[in-house]
Amino acid sequence: MRKIKALLLSLVFCIGLTSCFTLNHTVGNGAQGGDKTEKKQWYALWGLVPINDVDSKQMAAGAEDYTITSTHSFLDVVVSLFTGFVTIQVKTVKVEK
To answer: What's the rounded Cα separation, in Å, for the pair 88 and 97?
Structure first.
């Protein structure tokens, strides 16, 4: 019985971590300083329909060298657990100049 509980707990843990990801995009020479801008991107229908518009080029404010990081972090997973029953998902978009 103990092995079954451990297996089920491991399975739930593995499934819970499958949606964490980070995507990095480098524009020009990448981030040169420490200026960061961060926004949340919200989606409906489990990520199929964007609710708000997050424009990374606008977040860069005219900079020619910057790095865009799109993350589905642990906090985003927690928020999505509570909003998932109404099909709302969230991810974080960060621009470093």
So the answer is: 30
Q: Which two tokens stand for residue 73?
A: 């972090």
Residues 6+ apart with CB under 8 A from 81: none
Are the C-beta atoms of residues 79 and 19 closer than 8 Å to each other?
Answer: no
- Nearest-CA neighbor of 31 among 74, 58, 67? 67
The owner of tokens 């980070």 is 22
DSSP 3-state assignment of 96?
strand
Q: Are 96 and 31 in contact (CB under 8 A)?
A: yes
Q: Is the pTM of this model over 0.85?
A: no
Residue-wise pLDDT tens digits, 68-89: 998 887 788 788 778 877 888 8
Any residues with CB less than 8 A from the CB of 69 and at least 6 apart, and which? 22, 23, 24, 25, 93, 94, 95, 96
